[in-house]
Design goal:
Blueprint (H helix, E strand, L loop, with lengths): L1 H15 L19 H10 L4 E4 L5 H5 L9 H7 L27 E4 L3 H14 L3 E4 L15 E4 L8 E8 L2 E10 L4 H8 L3 E2 L13 H4 L7 H4 L6 E7 L5 E5 L4 H7 L9 E8 L1 E2 L3 E8 L10 H13 L7 E6 L2 E7 L2 H5 L2 H7 L4 E8 L2 H4 L2 H4 L13 E6 H6 L1 H12 L7 E3 L21 E7 L2 H10 L17 H6 L3 H11 L21 H16 L1
Parallel strand pairs: 2-4, 3-4
Antiparallel strand pairs: 1-2, 5-6, 6-10, 7-11, 8-9, 8-10, 12-14, 12-15, 13-14, 13-17, 16-18, 17-18
Length: about 550
């Protein structure tokens, strides 16, 4: 009788506790956790996919780490492991920190169709289980993982990849749009479009085309030319936290449409399909270079300093035709247009005048062709344990009004960590109103997104540019004050929409709006956990 009384006492407090604390049902709570018969029933209702028990952390090394020994690990990790594998293995731990506990969901639903997603969410609602969503596992903060959660794994979701001509939505006709399914990755999307059109897409070919990349903003090498990924979306089809399926566009569920474009993945619902506006195919050139006089034992910085000066001076007025990536001693830039026009551009001429560089120039009929076309595209190598990335936005006002400060900061970085991988942004991105989408307003006002892999470098940028914000797609797993750094003045509206569309906070993930950490477990829930563990010792 004593054991029963303790269990009921803990359960009463558990049910009555506030929603702002971690009150999800966990596997150790036998009074609410589904029985095996109930899991079997869910499996019967999943008509296209499968249900897996993936909570045993000892399986991770066998299923996932072993996939990382050869080139092409990214493809293996996105497709194997029953949904448990992350592209960077530390992200199987809480907050991608190898010193913390495992953060692997208890079960995964390998969703194949809309019904599977709906059934998974309804099941989670019935049993009060937190839900996380994952396609290929590229999130650098581990947001698609959650201890004790039900994972909706979208990678096996039915493929669509269909180009639609004269696509009409909200009374507006688009010459062409790509219809993408919720589990497709950029390799599939690029190949579906081919050379027929240009699509603003991700750099990594195994990155989701309808998930976290997009809902985090969708930064692309061609964003200066056409805007971010979120600026290309005409409409989403999404399964909400109550299991209903809705369309979000600028004329239907407009507030949800706003939130999905930059408010973060795994937060407001599960995207089952999306339409991207396509653009006319135009010739592209790729200019790449690296300095040649920065090496041991002399470490001559003359050419690097000239490059930094050129970059900062050119950025405010750089032609919108340019986009791409750069580092402190290198650049890979794409120019949309004819080669003869690029050769006359002051930015190109400035790079060639740097002197001590190795450079190459390639031109082709399209960006898709430059990347290798259908047969020779390559992607990033993943499968490492740690990927300690962080990002900072550098607003145009700093580069225009305080160029010397920006130059001095970059030159300081040469001697204090050095390695960065950065985007040159602005252009078309800046022509979209800062509050038109949910992404941090600073993204619309910046010319650089600097990505670092050394704590000294990111802290220097935070100190020098304290109000600029971080780029969500490449944000630090431990970004201080992360909500404000990711969304700025859009944060409060996002919180209100989270309450509207997910009042029970069914979707719960690190670095997501409304996140509830297990450390916020209420006294009652904590008491129940202690009680449950105590009772187990009596059995």
């Amino acid at each position: 009788m004593k054991e029963i009384f303790l269990a009921l006492w803990g359960l009463c407090f558990y049910i009555a506790s506030p929603k702002s604390t971690f009150e999800y049902c966990m596997s150790y709570n036998e009074t609410c956790w589904p029985t095996q018969l109930e899991w079997n029933e869910l499996s019967k209702n999943i008509t296209g996919g499968k249900v897996y028990n993936i909570g045993d952390s000892s399986e991770y090394s066998l299923s996932c780490s072993a996939q990382s020994t050869t080139y092409g690990a990214a493809y293996k990790l996105e497709n194997n492991g029953e949904g448990r594998c992350m592209q960077y293995h530390d992200c199987s731990k809480k907050r991608c920190d190898s010193s913390l506990d495992w953060n692997i969901p208890q079960f995964s639903v390998q969703a194949y169709n809309e019904n599977d997603v709906v059934e998974a969410i309804r099941f989670a609602n019935k049993h009060n289980i937190q839900v996380v969503v994952k396609t290929s596992g590229h999130n650098y903060a581990g947001s698609s993982m959650g201890e004790g959660a039900l994972l909706i794994w979208m990678r096996k979701f039915e493929k669509i990849s269909t180009v639609k001509n004269n696509y009409i939505v909200c009374g507006e006709t688009y010459e062409a749009a790509l219809h993408v399914g919720g589990g497709e990755v950029w390799e599939e999307a690029y190949k579906a479009v081919g050379n027929s059109y240009h699509i603003v897409g991700g750099g990594g070919l195994t990155v989701s085309a309808a998930g976290g990349w997009l809902m985090g903003g969708g930064l692309s090498a061609s964003s200066r030319l056409y805007g971010m990924g979120i600026d290309q979306v005409t409409d989403f089809k999404v399964v909400l936290a109550d299991g209903s399926i809705v369309t979000a566009s600028k004329c239907e569920n407009e507030d949800l449409f706003w939130a999905l474009r930059g408010g973060g993945g795994g937060t407001f619902g599960v995207i089952v399909s999306v339409h991207y506006q396509l653009h006319e195919t135009k010739p592209f050139c790729e200019l790449s270079f690296a300095t040649t006089d920065f090496y041991a034992p002399f470490w001559n910085t003359k050419t690097i300093y000239k490059w930094i000066d050129l970059l900062v001076d050119e950025a405010p007025t750089l032609s919108q035709n340019w986009g791409g990536y750069w580092g402190l001693n290198w650049g890979i830039f794409y120019y949309e247009g004819e080669e003869e026009d690029m050769l006359k551009d002051s930015f190109y001429q400035g790079i060639k005048a740097l002197g001590n560089i190795d450079s190459s120039l390639r031109c082709d009929e399209s960006y898709f062709a430059l990347r290798g076309g259908p047969d020779e595209m390559t992607t990033d190598q993943t499968g490492q344990n740690e990927f300690n990335i962080a990002s900072r936005l550098i607003p145009l006002e700093y580069v225009t009004n305080q160029p010397d400060k920006v130059k001095e900061t970059l030159k300081w970085m040469v001697h204090n960590g050095f390695y960065t991988f950065n985007y040159i942004i602005g252009g078309r991105m800046s022509q979209v109103d800062h509050d038109a989408t949910a992404v941090h307003p600073a993204m619309r006002k910046s010319v650089f997104q600097i990505e670092t892999f050394d704590e000294r470098l990111i802290q220097k940028l935070r100190d020098e540019f304290p109000d600029s914000g971080a780029g969500f797609n490449h944000a630090a797993k431990d970004e201080p004050d992360w909500e404000n750094q990711f969304w700025g003045s859009n944060l409060e509206r996002l919180k209100s929409l989270k309450l509207k569309y997910d009042p029970e906070n069914r979707f719960n993930c690190w670095h997501c709006i409304g996140y509830i950490d297990s450390s916020t477990m209420s006294i009652s829930a904590a008491h129940y956990l202690v009680t449950a563990l105590f009772l187990r010792t009596l059995i």
